[in-house]
Amino acid sequence: MHYQFDWEKYSDIARQAAAEGCVLLKNDNNTLPINKGETVSVFGRIQFDYYYSGTGSGGMVNPPYVVSILDALKASGDITINQELLSVYEAWTKENPFDMGKGWAQEPWCQKEMPLTKELVDKASRQSDIAVVIIGRTAGEDKDNSAEKGSYLLSNEEDKMLELVCGTFSRVVVLLNVGNVIDMEWTVKYNPQAILYVWQGGCEGGNGVCDILTGKSNPSGKLVDTIACNILDYPAIDNFGDSERNYYKEDIYVGYRYFETAAKEKVRYPFGYGLSYTTFEYFSDSYKVIEDTINFNVTVTNTGNVPGKQVIQVYVCPPQGLLGKPVRNLVRFAKTELLKPGESETISFKVLLKELASYDDSGLTNNKSCYVLEEGLYEIYVGFDVRNTSLAGSYTLEKLMVIEELQEALAPTHTFNRLKPSQDINGSYNMTEEEVPIRTINLKERLNYKGSSVDSFTDDKGYKLKDVYEEKVSLPGFLGQLTDHDLVCMSRGEGMCSPKVTPGTAGAFGGITDKLKYFGIPAACCADGPSGIRMDDGSKAFSLPNGTALACSFNVDLIEKLFEMVGMELRKNKVDTILGPGMNIHRCVLNGRNFEYFSEDPYVTGKIAAAELKGMHKYGATGTIKHFACNNQEFKRTEIDSIVSERALREIYLKGFEIAVKEGGAYSVMTSYGAINGIWTAGNFDLLNTVLRSEWKFNGIVMTDWWAKMNDEGGPASSQNTAAMIRAQNDLFMVTANPEANSNQDNAEEELKKGNISRGQLVRNALNICGFVLNSPAMKRFIGEEQNWSELNAYKERESIENIIESGIVKEQLELEVSNIKTEKSSSVIFDIKTPQKGEYSIKFKMKSDAGEVSQMPLSIFINNHIIETITINGTNGKVIEREVNFYAATNINNYIKLYFGESGIEIIEAKVCKNF
Ligand code: BGC
Fold first, then answer.
1. Is residue 531 in contact with ligand 1, taking CB distance under 6 Å?
2. Residue 803 has pLDDT above 70, yes or no
3. Residue 48: C-alpha distances to residues 57, 157, 542, 603 (Å)
4. Which are the catalytic amino acids?
5. 620 φ/ψ sector (left φ>0, alpha ψ -120 to 50, else beta)
6. Which residues are within 8 A (CB) of 50 and not within 5 positions of it... i.e. 6 or more apart?
7. pLDDT per position as a tens digit, 532-575
8. In contact, 802 and 777? CB cutoff 8 Å
9. CB count in 10 Å sphere of residue 190
10. Where is the Fibronectin type III-like domain (predicted)?
11. Is 578 in the pocket of ligand 1 (CB under 6 A)?
12. Rounded to an integer, what distance in angstroms lies between the CA atom of residue 713 and that of residue 230?
């Protein structure tokens, strides 16, 4: 088999995805599109500093190029840019360069904005037809947004900019190049004519936005989150940001489920909303309930003047019953093809009654721990957003039906009150409260489960994993040859940047010790992250639109196509699984990693994730769905405990993952950093066994987040307690520097000796890991069966001109001059040294960093253009640490040592080259 990887096709699909992810919220008097030949004044420094991604692991892709909005407007040829204004900005940004801060989680949320004068704006308005104002924000891993100016709110300069531009121009378009929804009070204050959320669009982001601005593409994106009038209106806001535990008091009433039920007036833009340059009408017909399925058609017609796409959304309004329910729950969506003016498309929908069920975690219906359909009227609404819908039909259930009997799992042990709607005499709903049911089962009994019964040790019988691949021996038979020590080693991943796999990636697992390799187990490779392949040695990879942007497209076919390309790119780079999609729910608008995640709605989340997985699976690579579950805040993320009801877990926080497993065929999961109801997820038996594996029939691998903590209930959390992880069937601890030597000093072997974990549990987990490896491209590479690849339209890497620092001869040791080197993200420096004798040398570094304890700062060391190693350090709390890499050099030659910094934040105190002989 021969694969051909076409970069141009990749760019085209990504460009379309970036365009379809843009959401047009306002377009008075057809302000957009910009007409051919018009002159545009572009305001805002972000025209030069386009945010193609958020920060942290999900934003550390090294793209070969990034097209900013300004680049794309300039290249479009259809419009003219106001050059005079542009030069003013150019001069100012030269004096006021982009501020990267100190690196990992220490980049400012927004950049200083150029102050405008009335004269400048007046002049620009006389010189042009329309103003485009770009507002930019970043946020990301380890750094939430805050309800402050320059983060969720506009900075003073941005506010002033909008005031002046909107007060002067009669046509103003505001572009929001942001990861999270931001405050939009300014829409009322300054009333710009058009507003477009453009998110962070990856390499092709600017092109996608430009296509929308110039009308090459017609906007078809829809909001995946409700935009409330005020931040205090969001139901989770009071219970976000704690340093120990957050009570999920809003329960299942997240986003539109809350607003549409009890606070409609607090919504500025509803969920699912988004305008087009054309108009659409729709009607539904053929509504029929046949046995357990509701069937109906929706016909959409383009009634305007330009071609466009529309998203039909289907919501259910269930009866309140005893449990109480949101008045709108998204159950289906579909995007039309590009419809020409006058053209129609009919889409058939089938909704299974069981999909309308609610989870009874309290026993109020006498069916505790069951999904039930309570008796009463179920109405099906269709429309183009959650607010503007019409009734397609209804279904009356005479008697309560139990849909699925499950068992209590993950219930809280703290009592608190959660929201529940109650109807007043006018028929509207107010939120009242009820006490959350707490745990009734004995968790200790569940934990007695001992794992695989195939657990005897047979000694080496000469089987290699290839024999399992070729079905000559069973996998349990093969694993019988592994000692307890081998099995414990297999529970450890290696990284970051393991030399056993693709340079600069997050980790390796499987055959990561000599002994495991001897048994023919290859090392599988995983790399960040949701928006492209992160390789910290500086290798280039495609950067995709962020998760929120992709979800706003509501176009699962397009996303699947895009992720076919990702699948190929993974394969080409010898990466078996990408560490994504990130699919936590947008519980709070301030969560720093919302940009990586999809939506406030679990159905959209699950569907988009499933589409990504299906795309990658076509090329044999996969994604690791993360962070399972409730990674809903970055502040104190390794400490925070989410106190949440079982119902909210099942209906909201786990639902998307369930869809990704059942429909997307996910076979790799990453647990989160924090705890759910007192038990850290990486060692949470109920989460991983009772729900994921037993109920959902998941049989892939589960890995921890990097250096995550585990605990025994009631006990402290620590990265060393991998016994808790092994017991819970979280197969892999990610990551350790040296799995064989137990560099993490975990307690697995000690707890095995004490009988607190069993060989059976280790074998069970090894079955999962080897099962993954057997199905992965790693196995094919190992046995020489990997496909051939060729590339079409590959981009040419632009050579960077780096300064070479002449450093002299290494006699015994040579100090490199590091006091003035740049260590900012993506910078590199080259030292020229001479080695008079051949042999092994080492470079000894002393370095430090002020960043947080699980921050990631990679430093790659190349000798003569070959990567030797990527060292990733975490924050050192200001303490100086030492690291060493070895290399071999020939006699009397010039050697070039290149240091490449994948992220800012490292301070090199000293670097010495030493002769090791
Ligand atoms: C992040 C994960 C990421 C991992 C590896 C962690 O800090 O939370 O999402 O995949 O690092 O980089």
1. no
2. no
3. 23, 17, 20, 36
4. 705
5. left
6. 66, 68, 69, 70, 136, 177, 205, 206
7. 999 999 899 999 999 999 999 999 999 999 999 999 999 999 99
8. no
9. 18
10. 310-386
11. no
12. 39
Report the C-alpha gap between 632 and 63 in whole angstroms: 28
Q: Whose CA is nearest to atom 6 of ligand 1?
A: 706
CA–centroid distance, 527 to ligand 1, in Å, is 9
Residue 196: CA atoms inside 13 Å, Cβ hemisphere, count? 33
**Predicted TM-score (pTM) above 0.90:** yes
Buried b (16+ CB within 10 A) or exposed e, 292-307: eebebebbbbbebeeb
Give domain 280-435's CATH superfamily: Immunoglobulins (2.60.40.10)
Task: Name which of 452, 551, 490 is nearest 759 in CA terms.
Answer: 452
* Closest to 914 in 3D by CA, of 855, 840, 820, 858: 840
Supply the pLDDT for residue 799: 43
Which residue lies with its CA nearest to atom 3 of ligand 1? 57
Distance in angstroms (rounded) separating the CA atoms of residues 459 and 773: 22
Q: Where are the beta strands (DSSP E) in 481-530?
A: 492-494, 507-510, 523-527
Residue 665 identity (one-letter amino acid) = G
Question: What is the per-residue DSSP string for 329-348?
Answer: EEEEEEE---BPTT-EEEEE
3-state secondary structure 538-551: CCCCCCCCCHHHHH
- From the number of C-beta atoms within 10 Å of its C-beta (0-12, 13-18, 19+), residue 415 rates as exposed
Tell me, using a 6 A CB cutoff, whether residue 506 lines ligand 1: yes
- The CATH class of 804-915 is mainly beta
Ligand 1: centre distance to CA 696 (Å)? 25
Taking domain 2-221, whether its CATH number is 3.10.50.40 is answered by no
Token match 């929201």: residue?
Answer: 419
754 CB contacts (<8 Å, ≥6 apart)?
Answer: none
Domain boundaries, the chain: 2-221, 280-435, 497-784, 804-915
* CB 597 near ligand 1, within 6 Å: no
Read off the tokens for 662: 């059942």
Beta bridge partners of 882: 846
User: Closest ligand 1 atom to the C-alpha of 854?
Assistant: 7
Please state, in angstroms and rounded to a whole number, the distance separating the CA atoms of residues 303 and 283: 13
Would you tell me how many other CB atoms lie within 10 Å of the CB of residue 189? 13
Q: Is the CB of 854 under 6 A from ligand 1?
A: yes
Residue owning the nearest CA to atom 2 of ligand 1: 705
**8 Å CB contact between 328 and 381:** yes
Structure tokens at 125: 């308005």
Q: Does the pLDDT at position 453 exceed 80? A: no
**N-terminal to C-terminal alpha carbon distance within the chain:** 48
C-alpha to C-alpha distance for 456 and 464, rounded to whole angstroms:
18
Dist. CA 47–CA 68, nearest whole Å:
7
Q: Distance from the CA of 142 to the center of ligand 1, in angstroms?
A: 10
Classified by CATH at the fold level, domain 497-784 comes out as TIM Barrel (3.20.20)
633-676 residue pLDDT tens: 999 999 999 999 999 999 999 999 999 999 999 999 999 999 99
